Amino acid sequence: MRLRQVEYFLAVAEAGSITQAAANLYLAQPSLSYQITTLEKELGGQLFERLPRGLRLTPAGRVFLVEAKRVIADVGRAKRSVQAVTDGALGELEIATVTSLAVGVIPSVARAWRRSHANVALRLHEHSHSDRLEEGVQGGIGDFGFGPVPRRPMGEVVEVGTEEFVFVLPHDDPHATDRVINPADLQDRDWVLYDPAHGLSIVVNTVCSAFGFSPQVGVRTSQVETAARLAAAGLGPALLPANVIPANIDAAVRPATRPLIRRLAAYSRSSMPAIVRSFVDELRSAEHGLKEYPTGRGEVLDL
């Protein structure tokens, strides 16, 4: 049984005549008669009693009329729900991202975005490494990914800005009063580092290598906010995105002599639907701290 047959049945029941229903539907009478007969055969019972002048619903037809109206109403609601989700007015949006961005960027963006999408729930899929994020998105996790510009091919990629990495030092550190930090000045220190499987571990190693050394391990953690707290407590310098540093941290927060920049992007397996694009537009809003690529600050180290 097809939905069209149900709609034809309702039209005939309302008109009380095949001839009138066919005219209302702009359909040939023999074609409509065939569809009704086929429907009756599929259901295993006669729906209409053929009278000399018109049609009359049989007992089975009257029962089917109730169900047919319900089916059409349900389909209508389903269509409206799908359209509402497509338009971004209803449903759930799944965002795959890395843990640092889930902490440092997503909260303010989500708060602003939901002002105009109050009936859309958000679900986060957090990954500790950008490689795992890209694999997840390609494998079907999330409606889109938000993280460092992907190295794997994606259906659509939209750069949304950059984040800068900064150093956290205790106030009594000899370099706490420096305006900028030369990472080479910290090469003899024990550092607050990330677990080797964490994506930021590669970032720290890349920065230190660019300045000619490998960082010494003082303590390791898998949480970026914990890294900031440990550094503030004097357990070693920490390098982390500026957007994840707690606002109330009692520490010196300093940029590097060369800006340490990571480009960020939203990306998806195919073309982004309207609801995803609306969130991406919010990500690009200046109020959330993602900045354009820095100029006029000397040589930049892309991470």
What is the gist of this entry?
With 303 residues, this protein is of the alpha/beta class. The chain is built from ten helices and eleven strands.
Strand content: 25-35%
The CATH fourth-level homologous superfamily of the largest domain: Periplasmic binding protein-like II
Helical residues, percent: 25-40%
Mass-distribution shape:
rod-shaped
CATH fold field value of the largest domain: D-Maltodextrin-Binding Protein, domain 2
How many distinct beta strands? 11
Low-confidence stretches: none
Structure description:
The chain is of the alpha/beta class and 303 residues long. The chain has three domains: 84 residues, Arc Repressor Mutant, subunit A; 105 residues, D-Maltodextrin-Binding Protein, domain 2, CATH 3.40.190.10; 100 residues, Periplasmic binding protein-like II (D-Maltodextrin-Binding Protein, domain 2), CATH 3.40.190.10. The chain is 39% helix and 25% strand. It has ten helices and eleven strands. Strands 3, 4, 5, 6, 9, 10 and 11 form a seven-stranded mixed sheet that branches. Strands 1-2 form a two-stranded antiparallel ribbon. Strand 1 and strand 2 form a beta hairpin. Helix 1 packs across helix 3, helix 1 crosses helix 4 and helix 6 crosses helix 10. The longest helix has 28 residues. It is rod-shaped, with a radius of gyration of 31 Å. The two termini are 58 Å apart.
